[in-house]
Amino acid sequence: MTDAILLIDEPAPYVRRLTLNRPEARNALSSPLLVALAEALEAAGDDANIRAVVLTGGAKVFAAGADIKELATRDTVTGLLDARTALWGRIRRFAKPMVAAIDGYALGGGLELAMHADIAVAGPTAQFGLPEINLGFIPGGGGTQRLARIAGQQLAMKLILTGEFADAKTAHAAGLVAEIAEDAQLRGVEIAAKIAQKAPLAARLAKELVLAARDTPLETGLAFERKAIAALWGTDDFKEGVGAFLEKRKATFAGK
Ligand code: DAK
Prior knowledge:
Layout: E1 6-12, E2 15-20, H1 31-46, E3 52-56, H2 68-71, H3 76-80, H4 84-92, E4 98-102, E5 105-107, H5 109-114, E6 119-122, E7 127-129, H6 143-151, H7 153-162, E8 166-167, H8 168-173, E9 179-180, H9 184-196, H10 200-213, H11 218-232, H12 236-246
Parallel strand pairs: 2-3, 3-4, 4-6, 5-7, 6-9
Antiparallel strand pairs: 1-2, 7-8
Helix pairs in contact: 1-4, 6-7, 10-11
Bound molecules: 4-(N,N-dimethylamino)cinnamoyl-COA.
4-(N,N-dimethylamino)cinnamoyl-COA (DAK) binds at residues 25-26, 28, 64-69, 82, 84-85, 88, 105, 107-109, 112, 131-132, 135, 140-141.
């Protein structure tokens, strides 16, 4: 056991797992925890031996949002100057594939964090919500924008205006998670491990392109895709992938 607020380990080759660890506060995202997360993601981004990240809060709770005790001291001026905005920017810039394994509550900033993952897996008891309205304000980590884009206006309005939670089935039906798994922790690692076996440069560009599809006109996105594929055709990984197929063997990618 450790009392670190963020646990870091490598559950599979090339996979780093980041586990939020403030169970006594339902993994509320205090500023120190956001700093630890931003630093850990940057370290994973810089480490050539890491090809995918699993983000989780463990088997009981993903994260209950921003730390309300910390938020209680905010006013308009400190809100406008809030250092947390820059921390969210650092988290958003993580360029490698990120899988979220979500058990229990993903609320407020916790759900906003989950929406930064490229693939999310929910356990059967996961619950999703943006209940900031109960506290007299609104989501501040991108929730109003991302939830509407990912899950659609109806579910976004319902969660944001009523403060109600959605269960795993509803979240899955709305496209907020890729799948529901009996053991989301295991499945999250399995997905990340599978990605980590693929060509890292291709995975990175694929992530960038799919994210760009949200707010790029189709022609611009297609032009971006054509350039990306041409760039990938110049890599060793492309030669290895095609060579392995033709020689009927498993490809081993070096990320070069
Ligand atoms: N912050 C601080 N402490 C929390 C917490 C939170 N978000 N959630 C739970 N805790 C603490 C509780 O105070 C309690 O502490 P003690 O009383 O034991 O000291 C302990 O965790 C256990 O909580 P409960 O007794 O309530 O546990 P239950 O299992 O019964 O209920 C719950 C779990 C998660 C349903 C419930 O605790 C709850 O409703 N929590 C609050 C959820 C919430 O309202 N989340 C939204 C927070 S606001 C921004 C970016 C993002 C944000 C803002 C700005 N910028 C970039 C500017 C985000 C804002 C938010 O997320």
